[in-house]
Amino acid sequence: MKNENIILQEKTWANIKTRFQYGMTYIRVYLTDKRIYGKSFLIPIKIFDFPFSDIQETEVKGNRLRIRWSKGKISVWL
């Protein structure tokens, strides 16, 4: 696949899972874009106590992933 921006849509989300490796937390994002259907990738989050059980809302706009929880929010550009 050429190096190109992949625009994410709301339906891109299947779910969010976490994985712990070498003391780092990751968010696993599953994409449904037809060019990369079924592939997933990991976004490293450098917050060791990220409140995954407290996630209230996830939003995908363009190529930005926004996660909100009770005490704050984080945005990741994909």
Per-chain topology:
Blueprint: E1 16-21, E2 24-30, E3 40-45, E4 55-61, E5 64-69, E6 72-77
Antiparallel strand pairs: 1-2, 2-3, 4-5, 5-6
Task: Explain the overall architecture.
The structure is a single chain. The protein is mostly beta strands and 78 residues long. The chain has one domain. It is built from no helices and 6 strands. A hairpin with a 2-residue loop joins β4 (55-61) and β5 (64-69). It starts with 15 loop residues before the first strand and ends with a strand.
Task: Give a brief outline of the structure.
The protein has no helices and 6 strands. It is mainly beta and 78 residues long.
How would you describe this structure in keywords?
6 strands, three-stranded antiparallel sheet, disordered N terminus, 78 residues, mainly beta
Widest beta sheet: strand line-up = 1-2-3
Which series of helices and strands comes N to C? EEEEEE
Please summarize the sheet with the most strands.
3 strands, antiparallel
Shape descriptor reads elongated
Number of domains: 1
Helix content: under 10%
